[in-house]
Design goal:
The structure is a single chain. With about 130 residues, this protein is mainly α. It has one domain (about 5-129): Ribonuclease iii, N-terminal Endonuclease Domain, Chain A (Orthogonal Bundle), CATH 1.10.1520.10. It has six helices and no strands. The protein has helices spanning about 10-30, 35-45, 50-60, 65-75, 90-105, 110-129. About 30% of the residues are buried. Belongs to the MrnC RNase family. Its main location: cytoplasm. This is Mini-ribonuclease 3.
Length: about 130
């Protein structure tokens, strides 16, 4: 199966789960706290606003390969028929773009590149906090 041909929102759906799991593992091992505190911390990393800001930082560096930039653009421009919760459409689209790249890397079994990206996301958010 050619992963690039998947709907970018499908890639974002997968990427959301991958990022959420990575963040949960990170904060559980770092904080060793109660679930409510863990949930509050995870929102710093996985909210649409945080992901949009992180994407902007990564693009400025520039961090992404040409292939990943193509996935980002497709993810950002995809028409979603669900309404963004607690954010504007532009922020939601940027967030979906980042998640699409994560989903793409995951489904392509590019574990090393995926781990570097996920760790970079954690690092960027930590610097911002």
């Amino acid at each position: 199966m050619n992963i690039k041909l998947l709907n970018p929102l499908t890639l974002a759906y997968m990427g959301d789960a991958v990022l959420d799991q990575h963040v949960r593992k990170y904060i559980v091992l770092k904080l060793r706290s109660k679930p409510n505190r863990l949930h509050q911390m995870s929102k710093l990393y996985v909210s649409a606003k945080s992901q949009a800001q992180t994407l902007e930082t990564l693009i400025e560096e520039p961090w992404f390969t040409e292939e990943e930039m193509d996935i980002l653009k497709r993810g950002r421009n995809a028409k979603s028929y669900t309404k963004a919760k607690n954010t504007d459409v532009q922020t939601y689209r940027k967030s979906s773009a980042l998640e699409a790249v994560i989903g793409f890397l995951y489904l392509e079994h590019r574990e090393e590149r995926l781990k570097v990206l996920l760790d970079k996301i954690i690092e960027i958010v930590n610097e911002r906090s």
